[in-house]
């Protein structure tokens, strides 16, 4: 199954929620591809568009992540607590690719303040724990994209954890 078909299927899943029984069934459907690699241009274009939308709505428009938090969009949830949520990335770039997000909106890591120290530490510890649960014993990569030049495509802070294969350097 092609990456674009996975993304299209995921986007239109909201309309077909009554057909798909439960979150796990949806992920079985989407799990046909081991992982996809979007071209760098695609991600850069999405980041530019997200920056425009974030500016236009001043971070008031619900993000895809806020919809996952409130349950209006399904996700393959790996961990949750009162501070954060970890779930598989819908467009995985490695055999294991999940995100860790705070339950409240903090749009960018560059907007974090000293008030967020405990939360940021918690996000990283959760990333470590979930990576261990996912069997990433040989290592993994932790990534936080920030702003348009960092190719941030969703303006809700999120920590990417990628593993299950050898990562290359530089990342891009």
UniProtKB/TrEMBL annotation:
<comment type="similarity">
    <text>Belongs to the HINT family.</text>
</comment>
<protein>
    <submittedName>
        <fullName>Histidine triad nucleotide binding protein 2</fullName>
    </submittedName>
</protein>
<dbReference type="InterPro" id="IPR019808">
    <property type="entry name" value="Histidine_triad_CS"/>
</dbReference>
<dbReference type="GO" id="GO:0003824">
    <property type="term" value="F:catalytic activity"/>
</dbReference>
<dbReference type="Pfam" id="PF01230">
    <property type="entry name" value="HIT"/>
</dbReference>
<dbReference type="InterPro" id="IPR001310">
    <property type="entry name" value="Histidine_triad_HIT"/>
</dbReference>
<dbReference type="InterPro" id="IPR036265">
    <property type="entry name" value="HIT-like_sf"/>
</dbReference>
<dbReference type="InterPro" id="IPR011146">
    <property type="entry name" value="HIT-like"/>
</dbReference>
<feature type="short sequence motif" description="Histidine triad motif">
    <location>
        <begin position="156"/>
        <end position="160"/>
    </location>
</feature>
<feature type="domain" description="HIT">
    <location>
        <begin position="64"/>
        <end position="172"/>
    </location>
</feature>
<feature type="active site" description="Tele-AMP-histidine intermediate">
    <location>
        <position position="158"/>
    </location>
</feature>
